[in-house]
TrEMBL record:
<keyword id="KW-0378">Hydrolase</keyword>
<keyword id="KW-0326">Glycosidase</keyword>
<feature type="signal peptide">
    <location>
        <begin position="1"/>
        <end position="16"/>
    </location>
</feature>
<dbReference type="Pfam" id="PF00840">
    <property type="entry name" value="Glyco_hydro_7"/>
</dbReference>
<keyword id="KW-0136">Cellulose degradation</keyword>
<comment type="similarity">
    <text>Belongs to the glycosyl hydrolase 7 (cellulase C) family.</text>
</comment>
<dbReference type="InterPro" id="IPR001722">
    <property type="entry name" value="Glyco_hydro_7"/>
</dbReference>
<dbReference type="InterPro" id="IPR037019">
    <property type="entry name" value="Glyco_hydro_7_sf"/>
</dbReference>
<dbReference type="InterPro" id="IPR013320">
    <property type="entry name" value="ConA-like_dom_sf"/>
</dbReference>
<keyword id="KW-0624">Polysaccharide degradation</keyword>
<keyword id="KW-0119">Carbohydrate metabolism</keyword>
<protein>
    <recommendedName>
        <fullName>Glucanase</fullName>
        <ecNumber>3.2.1.-</ecNumber>
    </recommendedName>
</protein>
<keyword id="KW-0732">Signal</keyword>
<dbReference type="GO" id="GO:0016162">
    <property type="term" value="F:cellulose 1,4-beta-cellobiosidase activity"/>
</dbReference>
Length: 459
């Protein structure tokens, strides 16, 4: 995975850490179910919009603290002062961001939403625990399975409807960092294995140091700091391609990186940072089965289906060492096992294990940084306290080629591991996809967490 999240901001986006009062914050309800062998119980959970999307203004009025892709130098001369001066406000989820709940337990994310400030592009939300929304819902995935339904029939090439887990702090950093007055209730504390440096506020301070606006995105940029943590990509997909990918880290929980080496910034540092940005992916197309996933394929993406992911431990306990990640699908009442690898040098398996990852990295001539930072065992330690993330986005870095096309684009498509989907490499260029498919969307629903084989059934 090469996700950068460099462009998920609306036209007049601004950011911050104090709490504003100009727009009431109301989290859209999205109930999930917790299951055992005896049945499932409903949890009254909700979703909260990431702080990076929100309007932020000076606490004394309406002046933006961040405008376009530049900081307000008066309000934000340094990180701590900026956090004190700037208030993060509530969100109108539907009108501004195109985030709706079409039915109980369902969430629809619109790709482009026109609003009074221009247009919002993409979104990222987190699941909050039942109650007042001040804490994220934490998941222990070990010895469990995670299941949900998805409709990607309106999600074309170049887009990514992503469902994943990040090792974020339960309260969004509210208690750990005095400069953070907003917390999980306002979507603070994001981190992932890319150690993203486009996050405007990290550890309660504005990321203003050496901030540089993006040359391709009028609303984004990058600062000196990044926000790192382990990440488990359950689902990164569109109509044509999908992958699931564990990304372990050297660090536990959300950690701020403060230099290029620790952040893994740039090609020279990619495999020296706190986290593994590549991960160990299972993409059926990349693993040699080009007819498994897509419109009219074995898993037919023109229709909704269910995704089941199981996390197998060595001793069958909720604290054991992670040894395998299984994947299968349910569509039309039929259980569909994940495709098997058909790559020379890789055993014909349909799951992720350390053996699979080692063989795949060798077969594709990829750096096995996955193993260096802990492999599945390291990933498993992080899976005990994870926050659920749901998003839709486009990619200003490499046009989503790493997911659904040929990557690197400079290598022959016939080289092992290069072809990842059928999409044209140019289809995912942000200007192209935003213009051609503003009405694209993804729907997630029927989320369940439970003991193995408790969250689904075939007809």
């Amino acid at each position: 995975m090469l996700r950068t999240f460099s462009t998920l901001a609306f036209a007049a986006a601004v950011y911050g850490q104090q709490v504003g009062t100009l727009t009431a914050e109301k989290h859209p309800s999205m109930a999930i179910q917790a299951c055992t062998a005896s049945g499932c119980t409903k949890e009254d959970t909700a979703v909260v919009l990431d702080a990076n999307w929100r309007w932020t203004h000076v606490t004394s009025g309406y002046t933006n603290c961040y405008d376009g892709n530049k900081w307000n130098a008066t309000a934000c001369p340094d990180g701590k002062t900026c956090a004190a001066n700037c208030a993060i406000d509530g969100a109108d989820y539907e009108k501004t961001y195109g985030i709706t709940t079409p039915s109980d337990g369902a969430l629809k994310l619109q790709f482009v939403t026109k609003n009074q400030d221009g247009a919002n592009v993409g979104s990222r939300v987190y699941l909050t625990a039942a109650g007042d929304g001040s804490k994220y819902r934490l998941f222990n995935l070990l010895n469990k399975e995670f299941t949900f339904d998805v409709d990607v029939s309106n999600l074309p090439c170049g887009l990514n409807g992503a469902v994943y887990f990040s090792e974020m702090l339960e309260d969004g950093g509210l208690s750990a960092y005095p400069g953070n007055k907003a917390g999980a209730k306002y979507g603070t504390g994001y981190c992932d294995s890319q150690c993203p440096r486009d996050i405007k506020f990290i550890n309660g301070e504005a990321n203003v140091g050496n901030w540089s606006g993006s040359s391709s995105d009028a609303n984004s940029g990058a600062g000196s700091y990044g926000s790192c943590c382990a990440e488990m990509d359950i689902w990164e997909a569109n109509l044509d391609a999908t992958a699931y990918t564990p990304h372990p880290c050297k660090v536990s929980k959300q950690t701020r990186c403060e230099n290029d080496a620790d952040c893994g910034a740039g090609d020279a540092n990619r495999h020296s940072g706190f986290c593994d940005p590549d991960g160990c992916d299972f993409n059926s197309f990349r693993m040699g089965n080009t007819e498994f996933y897509g419109t009219g394929k074995t898993v037919d993406t023109s229709k909704p289906f269910t995704i089941v992911t199981q996390f197998i431990t060595a001793d069958g306990t909720d604290s054991g060492a992670l040894v395998q990640i299984n994947r299968f699908y349910v569509q039309g009442g039929t259980v569909i096992p994940n495709s098997q690898s058909a790559v020379t040098g890789v055993d014909p398996v349909n799951h992720i294990s350390d053996d699979f990852c080692q063989q795949q990295k060798k077969a594709f001539s990829d750096n096995n940084y996955f193993s260096t930072v802990g492999g599945l065992t390291g990933m498993g330690k992080s899976l005990e306290n994870m926050v659920l993330v749901l998003s839709v986005w486009d990619d200003h870095a490499v046009s989503m080629n790493w997911l659904d096309s040929n990557y690197p684009t400079t290598s022959p498509a016939t080289s092992p591991g290069v072809a990842r989907g059928r999409c044209d490499p140019a289809a995912g260029e942000p200007k192209t996809v935003e213009s051609a498919h503003p009405d694209a969307s993804v729907i997630y629903s029927n989320i369940k967490i439970g003991s193995l084989n408790s969250t689904f059934k075939a007809q």
